Amino acid sequence: FFSVMAPKAAPKAGAKKAPNAAVKAMQERLAKQKAAEEAEKKALEEEKRREKEEREEEERQKQKKEEEAKKKAQEKREKEQLIKAGKIVTEKQKKQMDANKLRMIELLAASGGSVAAYQNDPEMLAAIEAKRKELADRRAIDKAKLEAKKKEEEVELARIERLREMQNSNIRSPIICIMGHVDTGKTKLLDKIRRTNVQSGEAGGITQQIGASFFPIDTVLAKTADLNEDMKLEYQIPGLLIIDTPGHEAFSNLRSRGSSLCDIAILVIDIMHGIEQQTRESIQMLRAKKCPFIVALNKVDRLYDWKPKDDAPFRKSLDMQQKYVKQEFETRLASTMEQLSSEGLNSVVYWKNRDFTKYVSLVPTSAHSGEGIPDLLLLMTQLTQKHLTGKITLKDQLDCVVLEVKVIEGLGHTIDVILVNGILREGDTIIVGGLNGPIITHIRALLTPQPLKEMRVKGEYVHHKEVRAAQGVKITAVELEHAVAGSYLYTVPEDCDDEELERLKDKVNVDKILKGIETTDRGVSVQASTLGSLEALLSFLKDCKPPIPVATVSVGPIHKKHILKTTTMLEKQPEYAVILAFDVAVSKEAREYADAEGIKIFTADIIYHLFDQFTAYMKDVTEKAKSKDAEVAVFPVEMKVVPNCVFHARDPIVLGVEIQTGQLRVGTPLCCFHDDGSCFQIGRVMSMEREHKEVPILKKGEQAAVKIQVKDPVTTVGRHFTADQTIYSYITRESIDALKASFKDEVDKDGWKLVISLKKKLQIM
Description:
The protein is built from 21 helices and 29 strands. The chain starts with a helix and ends with a helix. Strands 12-11-17-8-9-16-13-14 form an 8-stranded antiparallel beta sheet. Strands 2-3-1-4-5-7-6 form a 7-stranded mixed beta sheet, with helices on both faces. The protein has a 6-stranded antiparallel β-barrel with strand order 22-23-28-25-24-29. β25 and β26 (693-694) form a beta hairpin. With 765 residues, the chain is α+β, with helices and mostly antiparallel strands. The protein has 5 domains: 102-111 and 120-168, no CATH class; 175-391, Rossmann fold, CATH 3.40.50.300; 399-511, Elongation Factor Tu (Ef-tu), domain 3; 517-630, Rossmann fold (3-Layer(aba) Sandwich), CATH 3.40.50; 633-762, Beta Barrel (Elongation Factor Tu (Ef-tu), domain 3). GO terms for molecular function: GTP binding; GTPase activity; metal ion binding; translation initiation factor activity. Belongs to the TRAFAC class translation factor GTPase superfamily. Classic translation factor GTPase family. IF-2 subfamily.
């Protein structure tokens, strides 16, 4: 109690009382508030200062602009006063003065007037002299241009007159056939001359049809101008008509037809490969037709390190090459000449040829760079004009051959013809060979390709009222769908009587062509875009090993009616219920109907591809049939039991055997014959072992242990047959048929003799 009530001790001197937390917080807030007020006050003062400076700056700029405006106004007033006083020339006045001066210079220069007034003005005198020289030069140039134009007009008039003379002359364009092995560059050579690209547009780069191109004499002149400066050859022909034939071996019919039309031929040989299969065939054709030809030794640009010179004459290009390049050329040239010699042909490069009747001329060319093409064109022109004048003399009698039959959108069925001699006119009545007999119709239109275009290439055609030979022409008329490529075309005179008409019908002989379109009762159906292509495809199928039989043929797109024809083969021989379609379209309806009926349609735009598809299909069909026949077929065998090699006499019988004839396979049924001729069926081969290893087949002279599952469980060796008896395979009519159908090539001659012997013993019919 006393301690509680006792007074508290006084605080020590100098001690400070600790501030309260609330008081401390208040002090901090007051300090922050005061700092914020001071910052705001400072910001206001800064803003007022900046505004004052901006007002002062605006005032200074205003004063400056006013001073500049006053200065410009003063300068303008002073300039106006000077101009008024004539002390300053304006830009407009200066331009006017310069123009006046230039007019004076031109006037004095043109008139040749006196320049005495300007003796003290050297600059003016120099300008007048320069202008006079300029005018003199211009007059000289204009005079030269006028003379050149006059000369060009004279040349053009002379050219037109020469062409008119050529057209009115009795000389026609020679027909040239270009031939050779596939991929030697035949079409590419023509492309280079035409500046077109037919070859790349063809399937696989292989020419599938015959094409005809007309090269006007203007083109020949332009291409050969440099080369002809020395030769000075005068052109007498109106142009060159060149037929490009396929080199693929499947197109021998087309090649033959082309070579029968031509006056002279170009045989293209690849200098890198020399003579090839179709080269020899082409040589044989040309010899058979007694057709003169020259050789284009193509692809010289493939020689190692060859430096091409576009469109140059070959000798000029050769002179530019390195020594080792020239040596390689000479080596390959000699090799080609040697190969031609082996074909019985003497040959030499054309510039060394002194006797064109005894030596074949070789013209080195490049379809890629155009080198040697001038040489080729000039030589063709020279030879035809010099040696074939009689052959290319125009005759009145019509000579016209059908190359192709085509369906053209908007035109219908058309025929491409080569007019060798004579004239065709729009409205003429013509007769041409057809599949179902002679076709008599009227020409609706005569069409030719644009100059330097080819008949095969779709494009704008030139319409003619009449066409003179020689020319490739497309004829539109009714009832041409059955016209036969390769047949002759004749015109029927208006006054033709019945006797004359019958004579013309007899002349339209298509037997030779129809022989190539023979069909069989059982075979595939074949369809192609043109008759020429159809012939080539049929020829190819005929030459296959084994040949592929053909039941029906047609030209043009495939429709439902074509499928309907093929369905008949489903009952006769189902594996031939197929259509081989070459370069033709298949209608949607036809495709759906074929799928529903189980008809196979193989399409391709290259014959080899079509053949590959069909071969793969037949291989699959054969394998399936073989697998099915394997269950029935029994291979013939004759065997003996090896002495002391009956390892097990009861089921399963195990014997050591040696094959005498034929072959023994697992699964083969076995039998033997008793002395009375009766047949005893032993059983079926379960397995065969030799040196503890299973073997699937035993052939003549081979031995093995054979396990046999007997047909009758009681069969025992020594009781039902003896080990001395000869054992044979047990065959039936069905097993023989299956063997013939699927395994004929696997049975040798002795084996088939054994089959015949067993047939007699087993009395199989």
